[in-house]
Amino acid sequence: MKHARVLFEGKVQDGTERDGQLLLADGRLVDPADATWLPPFAPTARPRTILALGLNYADHAKELEFKAPEEPLVFVKGQSSLIGHCQRTVRPSGVKFMHYECELVIVIGRTARNVRRDDAYDFIGGYTVANDYAIRDYLENWYRPNLRVKNRDTCTPIGPWLVDAKDVPDPMRLPLRTKVNGRITQSGNTRDMIFDAPFLIEYFSRFMTLEPGDLILTGTPDGVVDCQPGDEVITEIDGVGSLVNHIAD
Predict the structure, then answer these.
(1) Which of 40, 194, 206, 234 could covalently link to 162 via disulfide, CB atoms 3.0 to 4.6 Å apart?
(2) Residue 66 pLDDT grade (very low, low, confident, very high; cuts 50, 70, 90)
(3) Which domains does the chain have, with CATH numbers?
(4) What are the backbone angles phi and psi of residue 57, rounded to the nearest 5°?
(5) Average of per-residue pLDDT values in the chain
(6) Are strands 156-164 and 87-90 parallel, antiparallel or unpaired?
């Protein structure tokens, strides 16, 4: 099932997808375009921790002229950076290079501590799509991206749907792509991750507890380009969702 969280007629509501429409918790079936989309997480399962992978696709590492890492390169993100589907991301004044990153997001489903790789999928509640914008002007080191690169307000659109894990039978074989103003600028597949979902669950849970609702943004393939005010950026992953975002000045 695909779950959503929206603002409709002044009220925050949970919803699900039905035949291309949005079925609200109160039973009404509405046009998705009539709702304001929020990050698809219930208050009881809001992410306590947001982990994000850098250079987790070998082609992206090569694109940036780095060798593939031997262990995960990870940084922590704040909740204030998250916005919903069809919302606006602000490009700071004077920035020369700001690019999207289409990423599969793992949503933790139950408390995970010292999880074995073979059991990792049992701890995943679902998946969604993120667009993890990076502002390269502020980048000092890809291994330690600072707050202004990856944690600005509005710079992590996420959604539109949270898809139950059981409805994504092979998350490590999903085509993904990005379109800027209707033109495909990025294309890849989750099978090309250096560190896959089971590895990441095992790796993180060895030294930290993951709680329901926590997020792992799993990185992006090559093909990132600069985005300008007025651009429409669509990051999509087959079977998970198509996330629309607009760049504002």
Answers:
(1) 40
(2) low
(3) 1-38 (2.30.30.370), 44-248 (3.90.850.10)
(4) -125, 130
(5) 93
(6) unpaired
